[in-house]
Design goal:
This protein has 247 residues and is an alpha+beta fold. It is built from 9 helices and 12 strands. The protein has 2 domains: 136 residues, Sandwich (Jelly Rolls), CATH 2.60.120; 95 residues, Arc Repressor Mutant, subunit A, CATH 1.10.10.10.
């Protein structure tokens, strides 16, 4: 494990929270201090497992992680992606056991915020408000994902997910206007969108055939964002990113 000390301009956690709420300088300094202690965690590592007691709050500074639930037969459903700037389960320490697992999908830089430190942060009104808004967005995103899995076609599901991730990553400075890195597998996408890896491959091929995206190793290149949004019926209001969503 190695240490990483992100500066303010490149700190995704600070950028995300300031997108929800203006933060006083003292709050910004406190968040930067917490973010200094990131550790590099290998891909495919469980940070917490369902049934375990909460071990503080995990903050993703770089890389991709996910929340998931797993059946007894080993199949899983990915419930959420944690991208840079996302914190997993700020309120989890209120309960005795986790009701889901959190796993790194790629190598990640992760900060573990101790329960006591998380409680101290919540005593800061602006930080508490920003974290509450972030939690509400997580809940809104889960509702959108339920619609995605339950009522959209396989191609529409992937198109919607690509639009969402592009916007979320742009908001924290981790995506360009039409390009972003997605360091996960087609099996991960299958577990996210409720379909097989074969269908995911077929759907990605269809999006390429329509001239909507290109795949360059681990990068997605969006060739026609308006048409991709139209196909997915992507309406970004649930992310509550304000002007960033309109960009």
């Amino acid at each position: 494990m190695t240490d990483s000390r992100p500066d303010a301009a490149n700190n995704p956690f600070l950028r995300k929270l300031e997108g929800f709420e203006p933060l006083p300088e003292a709050d910004r300094a406190a968040l930067l201090k917490i973010s200094e202690n990131a550790q590099t965690i290998p891909a495919r590592t469980d940070l917490v497992r369902e049934g375990d007691p909460p071990a503080g709050v995990f903050l993703v500074m770089e890389g991709f992680a996910c929340r998931y639930k797993q059946r007894g037969n080993g199949t899983r459903q990915i419930m959420a992606y944690l991208v840079p700037g996302d914190a997993g389960d700020v309120d989890a320490p209120l309960f005795k056991a986790m009701d889901h697992s959190i796993c790194t999908l790629s190598a990640c830089k992760v900060v573990r915020i101790a329960t006591e430190t998380a409680r101290d942060l919540l005593q800061r009104p602006a930080v508490a408000s920003a974290l509450r808004k972030s939690t509400l967005v997580d809940e809104a995103t889960l509702r959108e994902w339920l619609l995605n899995v339950g009522r959209r076609t396989p191609v529409e599901r992937l198109a919607h997910l690509i639009c969402e991730l592009h916007l979320r990553l742009r908001a924290v400075g981790r995506a360009d206007e039409n390009r972003f890195e997605l360091p996960i597998t087609q099996h991960d996408l299958a577990d996210t969108t409720g379909q097989t890896a074969v269908l995911v491959n077929r759907s990605l091929r269809e999006l390429r055939t329509q001239g909507l995206i290109e795949l360059q190793q681990k990068h997605f290149v969006i060739l026609d964002l308006p048409r991709l949004k139209q196909l997915a019926e992507f309406r970004p209001g649930y992310l509550h990113l304000g002007e960033q969503a309109a960009a």
